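task queued by scheduler; priority normal; single chain, no ligands, no partner chains; default sampling; output format set to structure tokens
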Amino acid sequence: MNLNCMHINRFAGSAQVLLLCGALALSGCYKKENRTGETSPQNPPAQEETTAQPRTTTKTPEANPATASQKVDIDLYLEISNGMKGFMPPPAADKEPTVFQNRLNKLISEVQDGIYVDAKRYYMAREDRQGRPVLDSVAYGTLKNTIVSGIKADVRGTPLPDMLRAALENTVNRGAVSVIVSDFIHGPDPNNPGQFLSLDTDIRSSLKLAEHENLVVAVLAEASPFYGTYHPAVKKPQVSRTLNGEEIPYYIWVIGKQQEVQTVTNKVLRNLPAQQAYFGFNYQEIPFSAILKSNTFRPAGIVYCTSRTAEVCTSVNLMPEKEAPVEFTIGLNLSSLPSSMQDVKYLKQHLKLAVAGGKASVGTVIAADEEVKATPDLAKYTHFVRVIVPQLTANTGSITLQLPQVVPAWISQWSTANDNNPVASPKKTYQFNKIIEGVQALYRDQNETVFSATMKFNKETK
């Protein structure tokens, strides 16, 4: 633990203080399923040591405290199965890398060499001969070579809930963030087809540690050209199909403490795909203020800050009239939210207004442009919401902006009950909505809103 003179008991004698300060200054390839009945390799890959150092509880302070506080430990799991081979076709001079290969190459490079990752470990997920999940620890070079050169072995993968459970248990023990890459096609034990019917509850059970440890889950989805044998969950009319560049979904799940997950998504992954979903995320405090003195967001009607000297205005006096409703703008700093939740289109669709003691509605919702960002009084806010107040029914009350927890529409759009023919029905994953229902169940008792910003008001009279 680092010490300085600030830690010294304020009641110590001055001589003791000087002596102690002086002393301190001097110390100064695998297969996901049982999808086609193929067998495991006779000699599964041996575990390799990673280049990561063990997680420590003490970190050396750096010149930039913000950067130091954002560092995370990552356990990255890549499911390597026969069902995943098509994302990583063998290289050739006349072949472009797939979307999957491009994304994963950049991801593991950032994990390996980026400034936001402290310790890192890499794993390949598969199944052993007894049907148990195995996480083979591999070196960075081995993982990279697999991504760029393709999967050579014929190795079974493990049913989806089992893989998630094994990965999460391994990572929670280390206090790291799990990054799991897979097509998330569920291939249950052929001797237990009932797992198809219990997929949501099986997923929920596999992730129970996330609930117990107060972890959050970020789900990112992307589609990539797929070359080779595709193994659907639904085996009729065909057990498998040969694809030649058709797009198949794959997913990156990030599981860990909220702040650390956001470091991974914002600083490590970067350039996120459009399909994003966040579960368990909650923001207790969002900076906000009524914007009443700016020409850019000029209010209408009689409205002024209750406190004439406050720099941040969270209470206003209002006097709406019958033919002249009050309009004013609330500035919000949403920079800490996931990028998809900062999207203006998303906010316009989902932002709600709750009013106690009157009537009000949301007008425009805009993001700060370059001119606004250059204005000192406005630069601290990323978004601006116009509120229209036509009537007050009480002398005091509140106006609350809320962003509810919602499941993005793309979840159902990327889900299907029959994935047998991806050519006719592209970008679909078998029962993906059920998988997400299992994730949602972890957070059923948490807040129904991502954030709330409450503006108090007093009714002004003539």
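post-processing summary
- The chain has two domains: 66-280, 288-404+449-459.
- The two ends are 62 Å apart (CA to CA).
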